[in-house]
Amino acid sequence: MDKVNVVPSPRTIEYRGGSGPFGGEVRARVDPGLGNEAYRLTVGADGAEIVGGDEAGIFWGRQTLRQLLGPDAFRRAAIGGPPVVPYVTIEDAPRFGWRGFMLDVARHFMPKDGVLRYVDLLAAHKLNVLHLHLTDDQGWRVEIERYPRLTEVGSWRRRSQRGWGWPAQWDYRPHGGFYTKDDLREIVAYAAQRHITVVPEIDIPGHSQAAIAAYPELGNGDVIDVAALEVKTDWGVNPNVLNAEEPTLRFYEGVLEEVLEVFPSTFVHIGGDECLKDQWRRSPAAQARIDELGVEDEDGLQSWIIRHFTGWLAGRGRRLVGWDEILEGGLAEGATVASWKNYEAGIIAAEEGHDVVMCPRSAVYLDYRESEDPGEPVPSGKVTTLEDVYRFEVVPPRLAGTPHAERVLGAQANMWTEVAETPQRVDYQTFPRLVAFAEVVWSHEHDFESFQRRLHAAHYARLDAMGVDYRRPDGPRPWQSRPGIPGYSR
Protein backbone atom coordinates (compact mmCIF):
# COMPACT_ATOMS: atom_id res chain seq x y z
CA MET A 1 0.00 0.00 0.00
CA ASP A 2 2.78 2.46 0.87
CA LYS A 3 4.32 2.48 -2.60
CA VAL A 4 1.19 4.11 -4.05
CA ASN A 5 1.55 7.04 -1.63
CA VAL A 6 -2.16 7.63 -1.30
CA VAL A 7 -3.21 9.91 1.55
CA PRO A 8 -5.63 9.04 3.08
CA SER A 9 -4.88 5.34 2.82
CA PRO A 10 -7.47 3.46 0.74
CA ARG A 11 -9.73 0.74 2.07
CA THR A 12 -8.68 -1.81 -0.57
CA ILE A 13 -6.13 -1.67 -3.34
CA GLU A 14 -5.30 -4.23 -6.02
CA TYR A 15 -2.09 -4.01 -8.02
CA ARG A 16 -2.87 -5.30 -11.50
CA GLY A 17 0.73 -5.29 -12.68
CA GLY A 18 2.83 -2.72 -14.45
CA SER A 19 2.81 1.03 -14.79
CA GLY A 20 3.15 3.54 -17.56
CA PRO A 21 2.59 7.11 -18.72
CA PHE A 22 -0.89 8.33 -17.95
CA GLY A 23 -2.88 8.81 -21.12
CA GLY A 24 -5.12 11.48 -19.67
CA GLU A 25 -8.53 10.00 -20.45
CA VAL A 26 -10.79 9.80 -17.39
CA ARG A 27 -14.16 8.08 -17.63
CA ALA A 28 -16.67 8.57 -14.82
CA ARG A 29 -20.09 7.20 -13.96
CA VAL A 30 -22.37 6.81 -10.95
CA ASP A 31 -23.31 3.47 -9.39
CA PRO A 32 -25.51 4.15 -6.32
CA GLY A 33 -24.80 0.63 -5.10
CA LEU A 34 -21.38 1.76 -3.91
CA GLY A 35 -22.85 4.07 -1.27
CA ASN A 36 -22.56 7.76 -0.50
CA GLU A 37 -19.14 9.26 -1.24
CA ALA A 38 -17.65 5.87 -2.09
CA TYR A 39 -15.71 5.25 -5.30
CA ARG A 40 -13.84 2.67 -7.32
CA LEU A 41 -10.84 3.93 -9.30
CA THR A 42 -9.25 1.79 -11.99
CA VAL A 43 -6.07 3.00 -13.68
CA GLY A 44 -4.62 1.27 -16.72
CA ALA A 45 -2.82 1.84 -19.97
CA ASP A 46 -5.97 3.34 -21.50
CA GLY A 47 -6.46 5.95 -18.76
CA ALA A 48 -8.69 5.85 -15.69
CA GLU A 49 -12.26 4.93 -14.84
CA ILE A 50 -13.95 6.32 -11.73
CA VAL A 51 -17.21 4.81 -10.55
CA GLY A 52 -18.79 6.76 -7.71
CA GLY A 53 -21.67 5.96 -5.43
CA ASP A 54 -22.69 9.55 -6.16
CA GLU A 55 -21.13 12.67 -7.66
CA ALA A 56 -19.18 13.24 -4.45
CA GLY A 57 -17.69 9.75 -4.75
CA ILE A 58 -16.54 10.55 -8.29
CA PHE A 59 -14.94 13.75 -6.99
CA TRP A 60 -13.07 11.94 -4.21
CA GLY A 61 -11.92 9.38 -6.75
CA ARG A 62 -10.46 12.23 -8.78
CA GLN A 63 -8.52 13.38 -5.72
CA THR A 64 -6.97 9.93 -5.37
CA LEU A 65 -6.11 9.96 -9.06
CA ARG A 66 -4.34 13.29 -8.53
CA GLN A 67 -2.27 11.65 -5.82
CA LEU A 68 -1.30 8.82 -8.17
CA LEU A 69 -0.29 11.36 -10.83
CA GLY A 70 2.38 12.78 -8.53
CA PRO A 71 2.95 16.08 -6.69
CA ASP A 72 2.97 18.18 -9.86
CA ALA A 73 -0.70 17.32 -10.36
CA PHE A 74 -1.39 19.66 -7.42
CA ARG A 75 0.09 22.68 -9.18
CA ARG A 76 -2.20 25.21 -10.84
CA ALA A 77 -0.62 24.66 -14.22
CA ALA A 78 0.87 21.54 -15.77
CA ILE A 79 4.64 21.20 -15.84
CA GLY A 80 6.79 18.38 -17.19
CA GLY A 81 5.74 15.41 -19.25
CA PRO A 82 3.07 12.76 -18.71
CA PRO A 83 3.40 11.18 -15.26
CA VAL A 84 4.01 7.47 -14.85
CA VAL A 85 1.24 5.82 -12.84
CA PRO A 86 0.81 2.34 -11.40
CA TYR A 87 -1.98 0.21 -12.86
CA VAL A 88 -4.24 -0.32 -9.87
CA THR A 89 -7.83 -0.69 -8.76
CA ILE A 90 -8.76 1.16 -5.57
CA GLU A 91 -12.07 0.81 -3.76
CA ASP A 92 -12.64 3.33 -1.04
CA ALA A 93 -15.31 4.92 1.14
CA PRO A 94 -15.23 7.38 4.04
CA ARG A 95 -15.45 6.32 7.64
CA PHE A 96 -17.55 9.34 8.68
CA GLY A 97 -19.97 11.68 6.97
CA TRP A 98 -18.79 14.81 8.86
CA ARG A 99 -15.11 15.40 8.09
CA GLY A 100 -14.67 19.00 9.05
CA PHE A 101 -12.32 21.90 9.56
CA MET A 102 -13.26 24.96 11.62
CA LEU A 103 -11.58 28.21 10.54
CA ASP A 104 -11.81 31.19 12.89
CA VAL A 105 -12.02 34.28 10.68
CA ALA A 106 -13.39 36.45 13.51
CA ARG A 107 -10.23 36.93 15.58
CA HIS A 108 -8.08 37.51 12.49
CA PHE A 109 -9.89 38.09 9.25
CA MET A 110 -8.87 35.97 6.27
CA PRO A 111 -9.72 37.63 2.94
CA LYS A 112 -12.00 35.78 0.55
CA ASP A 113 -9.23 34.44 -1.68
CA GLY A 114 -7.59 32.84 1.36
CA VAL A 115 -10.81 31.07 2.27
CA LEU A 116 -11.22 29.82 -1.31
CA ARG A 117 -7.67 28.50 -1.13
CA TYR A 118 -8.56 26.59 2.04
CA VAL A 119 -11.57 25.10 0.27
CA ASP A 120 -9.14 23.67 -2.29
CA LEU A 121 -6.91 22.34 0.48
CA LEU A 122 -9.84 20.63 2.18
CA ALA A 123 -10.96 19.10 -1.12
CA ALA A 124 -7.49 17.69 -1.78
CA HIS A 125 -7.72 15.90 1.58
CA LYS A 126 -11.29 14.62 1.13
CA LEU A 127 -12.66 16.82 3.92
CA ASN A 128 -16.26 17.83 3.32
CA VAL A 129 -17.24 20.45 5.94
CA LEU A 130 -15.85 23.98 6.30
CA HIS A 131 -17.12 25.52 9.53
CA LEU A 132 -16.63 29.31 9.38
CA HIS A 133 -16.47 31.03 12.78
CA LEU A 134 -17.87 34.35 11.56
CA THR A 135 -18.57 36.35 14.73
CA ASP A 136 -16.91 36.85 18.09
CA ASP A 137 -15.97 39.52 20.62
CA GLN A 138 -13.12 40.67 18.40
CA GLY A 139 -14.97 41.02 15.12
CA TRP A 140 -18.16 40.53 13.09
CA ARG A 141 -17.35 39.22 9.60
CA VAL A 142 -20.68 38.73 7.78
CA GLU A 143 -22.71 41.47 6.08
CA ILE A 144 -26.25 41.80 7.47
CA GLU A 145 -28.12 44.35 5.39
CA ARG A 146 -30.80 45.21 7.95
CA TYR A 147 -28.15 45.84 10.62
CA PRO A 148 -25.35 47.72 8.84
CA ARG A 149 -23.53 48.75 12.02
CA LEU A 150 -22.56 45.10 12.59
CA THR A 151 -19.93 45.58 9.89
CA GLU A 152 -19.56 49.37 9.99
CA VAL A 153 -18.59 49.19 13.69
CA GLY A 154 -18.32 45.53 14.58
CA SER A 155 -15.88 44.40 11.88
CA TRP A 156 -13.00 46.66 13.03
CA ARG A 157 -10.98 46.86 16.21
CA ARG A 158 -8.54 49.66 16.95
CA ARG A 159 -5.69 47.42 18.12
CA SER A 160 -4.88 43.75 18.75
CA GLN A 161 -3.15 41.97 21.59
CA ARG A 162 0.17 40.43 20.57
CA GLY A 163 0.20 36.89 21.86
CA TRP A 164 -1.03 36.20 25.36
CA GLY A 165 -0.10 37.23 28.87
CA TRP A 166 -0.14 40.23 31.16
CA PRO A 167 0.82 43.01 30.91
CA ALA A 168 -0.50 42.83 27.36
CA GLN A 169 1.61 43.74 24.37
CA TRP A 170 -0.19 45.57 21.57
CA ASP A 171 -0.16 45.86 17.82
CA TYR A 172 -1.67 49.30 17.30
CA ARG A 173 -2.64 48.76 13.68
CA PRO A 174 -6.44 48.65 13.30
CA HIS A 175 -7.55 45.21 12.18
CA GLY A 176 -10.71 44.15 10.43
CA GLY A 177 -12.67 43.18 7.37
CA PHE A 178 -15.85 41.35 6.49
CA TYR A 179 -17.42 39.29 3.75
CA THR A 180 -20.25 40.68 1.70
CA LYS A 181 -23.18 38.40 1.08
CA ASP A 182 -21.95 37.88 -2.47
CA ASP A 183 -18.48 36.99 -1.17
CA LEU A 184 -20.06 34.31 0.99
CA ARG A 185 -22.32 33.09 -1.80
CA GLU A 186 -19.19 32.67 -3.92
CA ILE A 187 -17.43 30.72 -1.15
CA VAL A 188 -20.49 28.50 -0.69
CA ALA A 189 -20.81 27.85 -4.43
CA TYR A 190 -17.08 27.21 -4.85
CA ALA A 191 -17.17 24.75 -1.96
CA ALA A 192 -20.29 23.02 -3.29
CA GLN A 193 -18.53 22.37 -6.59
CA ARG A 194 -15.99 20.45 -4.50
CA HIS A 195 -18.67 18.64 -2.44
CA ILE A 196 -17.87 20.68 0.67
CA THR A 197 -20.62 22.11 2.88
CA VAL A 198 -19.99 25.49 4.50
CA VAL A 199 -21.47 25.71 8.00
CA PRO A 200 -21.79 29.29 9.34
CA GLU A 201 -21.37 30.15 13.01
CA ILE A 202 -23.11 33.15 14.62
CA ASP A 203 -22.30 33.28 18.35
CA ILE A 204 -25.22 33.45 20.80
CA PRO A 205 -25.35 34.51 23.67
CA GLY A 206 -21.66 34.81 24.61
CA HIS A 207 -18.72 35.95 22.48
CA SER A 208 -20.91 38.83 21.32
CA GLN A 209 -19.08 42.04 22.28
CA ALA A 210 -18.56 43.12 18.66
CA ALA A 211 -22.34 42.99 18.15
CA ILE A 212 -22.99 44.86 21.41
CA ALA A 213 -20.44 47.52 20.44
CA ALA A 214 -22.42 48.05 17.24
CA TYR A 215 -25.87 47.87 18.89
CA PRO A 216 -25.55 48.59 22.64
CA GLU A 217 -29.20 47.70 23.28
CA LEU A 218 -28.18 44.04 22.88
CA GLY A 219 -26.14 44.14 26.09
CA ASN A 220 -27.04 44.13 29.75
CA GLY A 221 -27.45 47.87 30.10
CA ASP A 222 -28.91 47.71 33.59
CA VAL A 223 -25.59 46.50 35.07
CA ILE A 224 -22.87 47.84 32.71
CA ASP A 225 -22.29 50.91 30.57
CA VAL A 226 -22.98 49.27 27.24
CA ALA A 227 -22.33 52.51 25.34
CA ALA A 228 -18.71 52.38 26.47
CA LEU A 229 -18.04 48.95 24.96
CA GLU A 230 -15.85 48.70 21.87
CA VAL A 231 -14.93 45.73 19.73
CA LYS A 232 -12.74 43.67 22.05
CA THR A 233 -9.00 44.09 21.47
CA ASP A 234 -7.60 41.31 23.66
CA TRP A 235 -8.28 37.59 23.97
CA GLY A 236 -9.83 35.36 26.59
CA VAL A 237 -13.27 34.63 28.03
CA ASN A 238 -15.41 37.75 28.18
CA PRO A 239 -18.13 38.72 30.71
CA ASN A 240 -20.03 40.92 28.23
CA VAL A 241 -22.88 38.79 26.88
CA LEU A 242 -26.24 39.37 25.23
CA ASN A 243 -29.32 40.13 27.26
CA ALA A 244 -32.26 37.73 27.06
CA GLU A 245 -34.96 40.21 26.10
CA GLU A 246 -37.45 39.67 23.28
CA PRO A 247 -36.01 42.48 21.09
CA THR A 248 -32.60 40.76 21.21
CA LEU A 249 -34.16 37.48 20.11
CA ARG A 250 -35.89 39.30 17.23
CA PHE A 251 -32.58 40.95 16.31
CA TYR A 252 -30.81 37.60 16.00
CA GLU A 253 -33.73 36.07 14.16
CA GLY A 254 -33.23 38.88 11.64
CA VAL A 255 -29.52 38.08 11.47
CA LEU A 256 -30.19 34.40 10.94
CA GLU A 257 -32.83 35.04 8.28
CA GLU A 258 -30.14 36.70 6.17
CA VAL A 259 -27.59 34.00 7.02
CA LEU A 260 -30.00 31.31 5.83
CA GLU A 261 -30.40 33.16 2.53
CA VAL A 262 -26.68 32.73 1.89
CA PHE A 263 -25.88 29.35 3.45
CA PRO A 264 -27.99 26.36 2.32
CA SER A 265 -26.36 23.99 4.82
CA THR A 266 -28.65 21.88 6.98
CA PHE A 267 -26.61 22.79 10.06
CA VAL A 268 -26.24 26.29 11.48
CA HIS A 269 -23.82 26.78 14.38
CA ILE A 270 -24.82 29.21 17.12
CA GLY A 271 -21.74 28.95 19.38
CA GLY A 272 -23.17 28.83 22.88
CA ASP A 273 -19.81 28.38 24.60
CA GLU A 274 -18.14 30.32 27.40
CA CYS A 275 -21.21 32.39 28.23
CA LEU A 276 -20.29 33.87 31.60
CA LYS A 277 -23.46 34.58 33.55
CA ASP A 278 -22.27 37.12 36.13
CA GLN A 279 -24.09 39.97 34.40
CA TRP A 280 -27.32 37.95 34.30
CA ARG A 281 -26.95 37.20 38.01
CA ARG A 282 -26.66 40.93 38.77
CA SER A 283 -29.22 42.10 36.21
CA PRO A 284 -32.75 42.79 37.51
CA ALA A 285 -33.98 42.42 33.92
CA ALA A 286 -32.36 39.00 33.51
CA GLN A 287 -33.71 37.84 36.89
CA ALA A 288 -37.19 39.01 35.92
CA ARG A 289 -36.82 37.12 32.66
CA ILE A 290 -35.90 33.94 34.56
CA ASP A 291 -39.06 34.33 36.66
CA GLU A 292 -41.19 35.12 33.60
CA LEU A 293 -40.01 32.05 31.70
CA GLY A 294 -40.20 29.77 34.73
CA VAL A 295 -36.67 28.46 34.31
CA GLU A 296 -34.57 27.49 37.30
CA ASP A 297 -31.52 29.74 37.01
CA GLU A 298 -29.07 31.40 34.64
CA ASP A 299 -28.11 28.07 33.06
CA GLY A 300 -31.80 27.53 32.46
CA LEU A 301 -32.00 30.94 30.81
CA GLN A 302 -29.25 30.07 28.36
CA SER A 303 -30.90 26.72 27.73
CA TRP A 304 -34.18 28.51 26.98
CA ILE A 305 -32.40 30.75 24.43
CA ILE A 306 -30.79 27.73 22.75
CA ARG A 307 -34.12 25.90 22.71
CA HIS A 308 -35.76 28.94 21.14
CA PHE A 309 -33.30 29.01 18.26
CA THR A 310 -33.37 25.23 17.92
CA GLY A 311 -37.09 25.46 17.26
CA TRP A 312 -36.75 28.58 15.12
CA LEU A 313 -34.21 26.87 12.85
CA ALA A 314 -36.18 23.61 12.77
CA GLY A 315 -39.20 25.54 11.54
CA ARG A 316 -37.10 26.58 8.55
CA GLY A 317 -35.78 23.12 7.80
CA ARG A 318 -32.42 23.64 9.49
CA ARG A 319 -30.66 22.10 12.47
CA LEU A 320 -28.86 23.84 15.30
CA VAL A 321 -25.35 22.79 16.29
CA GLY A 322 -23.47 24.34 19.19
CA TRP A 323 -20.46 23.85 21.44
CA ASP A 324 -20.89 21.50 24.37
CA GLU A 325 -22.01 24.19 26.84
CA ILE A 326 -25.42 24.07 25.15
CA LEU A 327 -25.98 20.93 27.25
CA GLU A 328 -26.11 23.10 30.38
CA GLY A 329 -29.66 23.41 31.59
CA GLY A 330 -30.94 20.80 29.16
CA LEU A 331 -30.88 20.48 25.39
CA ALA A 332 -33.74 20.65 22.92
CA GLU A 333 -34.56 17.68 20.74
CA GLY A 334 -32.83 17.93 17.39
CA ALA A 335 -29.85 19.98 18.57
CA THR A 336 -26.36 18.68 17.76
CA VAL A 337 -23.35 19.05 20.08
CA ALA A 338 -19.84 19.90 18.91
CA SER A 339 -17.86 18.43 21.80
CA TRP A 340 -14.76 20.60 22.34
CA LYS A 341 -13.79 20.58 26.03
CA ASN A 342 -13.33 16.83 26.19
CA TYR A 343 -15.02 13.62 25.13
CA GLU A 344 -17.45 13.56 28.05
CA ALA A 345 -19.94 16.10 26.70
CA GLY A 346 -20.11 14.22 23.41
CA ILE A 347 -20.64 10.93 25.22
CA ILE A 348 -23.44 12.38 27.35
CA ALA A 349 -25.10 14.00 24.33
CA ALA A 350 -24.97 10.78 22.31
CA GLU A 351 -26.36 8.74 25.18
CA GLU A 352 -29.20 11.25 25.52
CA GLY A 353 -30.07 10.81 21.85
CA HIS A 354 -28.34 13.83 20.31
CA ASP A 355 -26.05 13.83 17.31
CA VAL A 356 -22.43 14.72 18.03
CA VAL A 357 -19.43 16.11 16.20
CA MET A 358 -16.23 15.25 18.08
CA CYS A 359 -13.59 17.99 18.26
CA PRO A 360 -11.90 17.67 21.68
CA ARG A 361 -9.21 20.27 22.32
CA SER A 362 -6.93 17.58 23.70
CA ALA A 363 -6.56 16.06 20.23
CA VAL A 364 -7.65 18.32 17.37
CA TYR A 365 -7.10 21.96 18.36
CA LEU A 366 -4.59 22.97 15.70
CA ASP A 367 -3.84 26.34 17.30
CA TYR A 368 -2.08 24.38 20.06
CA ARG A 369 1.70 24.13 19.76
CA GLU A 370 3.24 21.05 18.19
CA SER A 371 6.37 20.82 20.33
CA GLU A 372 8.31 22.33 23.22
CA ASP A 373 10.73 23.87 20.70
CA PRO A 374 11.36 27.48 21.89
CA GLY A 375 11.09 28.55 18.26
CA GLU A 376 7.40 27.60 18.05
CA PRO A 377 5.59 30.84 17.16
CA VAL A 378 3.56 32.16 20.14
CA PRO A 379 3.25 28.72 21.73
CA SER A 380 -0.20 28.09 23.15
CA GLY A 381 -2.23 25.31 24.72
CA LYS A 382 -0.78 21.88 25.26
CA VAL A 383 1.68 20.10 23.01
CA THR A 384 -0.32 18.32 20.31
CA THR A 385 1.98 16.45 17.97
CA LEU A 386 1.33 15.05 14.53
CA GLU A 387 1.14 11.60 16.13
CA ASP A 388 -1.33 12.86 18.77
CA VAL A 389 -3.69 13.98 16.01
CA TYR A 390 -3.20 10.76 14.07
CA ARG A 391 -4.06 8.66 17.13
CA PHE A 392 -7.28 10.60 17.79
CA GLU A 393 -10.15 8.14 18.09
CA VAL A 394 -13.38 9.74 16.97
CA VAL A 395 -15.74 7.29 18.73
CA PRO A 396 -14.90 7.08 22.47
CA PRO A 397 -14.57 3.56 23.91
CA ARG A 398 -17.70 4.05 26.03
CA LEU A 399 -19.78 4.50 22.88
CA ALA A 400 -17.98 2.03 20.64
CA GLY A 401 -20.06 -1.05 19.91
CA THR A 402 -23.25 0.51 21.28
CA PRO A 403 -26.22 1.95 19.37
CA HIS A 404 -25.13 5.38 20.64
CA ALA A 405 -22.03 5.23 18.41
CA GLU A 406 -24.28 5.97 15.43
CA ARG A 407 -24.92 9.40 16.95
CA VAL A 408 -21.31 10.39 16.21
CA LEU A 409 -21.61 12.11 12.85
CA GLY A 410 -17.86 12.50 12.61
CA ALA A 411 -15.28 15.01 13.73
CA GLN A 412 -13.60 18.28 12.90
CA ALA A 413 -10.28 19.93 13.59
CA ASN A 414 -10.47 23.49 14.93
CA MET A 415 -8.12 26.34 14.02
CA TRP A 416 -8.56 29.37 16.29
CA THR A 417 -6.69 32.48 15.20
CA GLU A 418 -6.11 34.74 18.20
CA VAL A 419 -2.37 34.52 17.53
CA ALA A 420 -2.46 33.34 13.93
CA GLU A 421 -2.56 36.72 12.26
CA THR A 422 -1.65 35.73 8.69
CA PRO A 423 -2.57 32.96 6.24
CA GLN A 424 1.04 31.74 6.45
CA ARG A 425 0.69 31.28 10.21
CA VAL A 426 -2.60 29.45 9.73
CA ASP A 427 -0.79 27.15 7.29
CA TYR A 428 1.95 26.51 9.83
CA GLN A 429 -0.48 25.55 12.58
CA THR A 430 -2.76 23.53 10.33
CA PHE A 431 -0.41 21.42 8.24
CA PRO A 432 0.62 18.65 8.26
CA ARG A 433 -1.59 17.89 11.27
CA LEU A 434 -4.72 18.36 9.17
CA VAL A 435 -3.39 15.63 6.85
CA ALA A 436 -3.27 13.28 9.83
CA PHE A 437 -6.78 14.29 10.82
CA ALA A 438 -8.03 13.71 7.26
CA GLU A 439 -6.79 10.14 7.33
CA VAL A 440 -8.35 9.50 10.75
CA VAL A 441 -11.84 10.57 9.66
CA TRP A 442 -11.65 8.87 6.25
CA SER A 443 -9.72 5.64 6.71
CA HIS A 444 -10.36 2.56 8.82
CA GLU A 445 -6.66 1.64 8.89
CA HIS A 446 -4.47 3.68 11.22
CA ASP A 447 -0.77 2.88 10.98
CA PHE A 448 1.28 5.91 12.02
CA GLU A 449 4.57 4.55 10.71
CA SER A 450 2.99 3.95 7.29
CA PHE A 451 1.46 7.43 7.42
CA GLN A 452 4.85 9.01 8.16
CA ARG A 453 6.49 7.16 5.30
CA ARG A 454 3.80 8.35 2.90
CA LEU A 455 4.14 11.93 4.12
CA HIS A 456 7.87 11.92 3.43
CA ALA A 457 7.63 9.98 0.18
CA ALA A 458 5.04 12.16 -1.49
CA HIS A 459 2.72 14.27 0.58
CA TYR A 460 5.15 16.96 1.73
CA ALA A 461 5.92 17.46 -1.96
CA ARG A 462 2.19 17.84 -2.63
CA LEU A 463 1.94 20.51 0.07
CA ASP A 464 4.94 22.25 -1.50
CA ALA A 465 3.22 22.13 -4.89
CA MET A 466 0.09 23.70 -3.36
CA GLY A 467 2.16 26.47 -1.76
CA VAL A 468 1.42 25.51 1.84
CA ASP A 469 3.79 27.04 4.41
CA TYR A 470 3.55 23.96 6.62
CA ARG A 471 5.57 23.05 9.71
CA ARG A 472 8.54 20.94 8.68
CA PRO A 473 9.23 17.69 10.52
CA ASP A 474 12.35 19.14 12.16
CA GLY A 475 10.57 22.21 13.48
CA PRO A 476 9.90 25.84 12.58
CA ARG A 477 11.96 27.72 10.04
CA PRO A 478 13.38 31.08 11.15
CA TRP A 479 10.66 33.06 9.35
CA GLN A 480 7.97 31.01 11.05
CA SER A 481 9.02 32.03 14.57
CA ARG A 482 7.83 35.14 16.39
CA PRO A 483 10.46 35.84 19.06
CA GLY A 484 9.44 38.05 21.93
CA ILE A 485 5.69 37.46 21.62
CA PRO A 486 4.40 35.78 24.79
CA GLY A 487 2.40 32.58 24.59
CA TYR A 488 0.76 30.41 27.19
CA SER A 489 1.15 26.74 27.96
CA ARG A 490 -1.11 24.14 29.55
TrEMBL record:
EC number: 3.2.1.52
UniProt-listed CDD domains: GH20_chitobiase-like
Entry-linked Gene3D superfamilies: Chitobiase/beta-hexosaminidase domain 2-like, Glycosidases
Key words of the record: Glycosidase, Hydrolase
Domain Glycoside hydrolase family 20 catalytic: 96-444
Location of the region described as Disordered in the Swiss-Prot/TrEMBL record: 471-490
Keyword Oxidoreductase on entry: no
Segments passing through the bilayer: none
Keyword Transferase part of the UniProt annotation: no
Family named by the database record: Belongs to the glycosyl hydrolase 20 family.
Name under which the protein is recorded: beta-N-acetylhexosaminidase
Gene source species: Actinomadura fulvescens
